[in-house]
Amino acid sequence: QALDTYGAIDILVSNAAVNPVLGGTLEAEEEVWDKLWEDEERRQAVMSSMGIDRLGTPSDVASVVTFLCSPAASYVVGETVVVAGGAPSRL
């Protein structure tokens, strides 16, 4: 994270913002989740760690990236943005 902040300040001179985006547990191809969800205890552990009652989607992350690329985010520089359905807040 320190490197991201340092990089953000260094690159800011070039009028570019650096904001890493960390995606949480996201939906995937069914075959992948089928293997992971074979163990009901594991499934419950993952779902109980979520802040909301669903897995994220690639679109959830893409929406944040779209915002960060827009003029509306011009004051957001050097911030790590977590898109994880509230999961980190529950740790």
Automatic annotation (TrEMBL):
List, alphabetically, the InterPro entries matched: NAD(P)-bd_dom_sf, SDR_fam
This entry's Gene Ontology molecular function terms read: carbonyl reductase (NADPH) activity
A Pfam family that the UniProt record links to this protein:
adh_short_C2
State the source organism's domain of life: Eukaryota
Q: Which family does it belong to?
A: Belongs to the short-chain dehydrogenases/reductases (SDR) family.
The protein's name in its UniProt record: SDR family oxidoreductase
Traced from the root, the source organism's taxonomic lineage reads: Eukaryota, Metazoa, Chordata, Craniata, Vertebrata
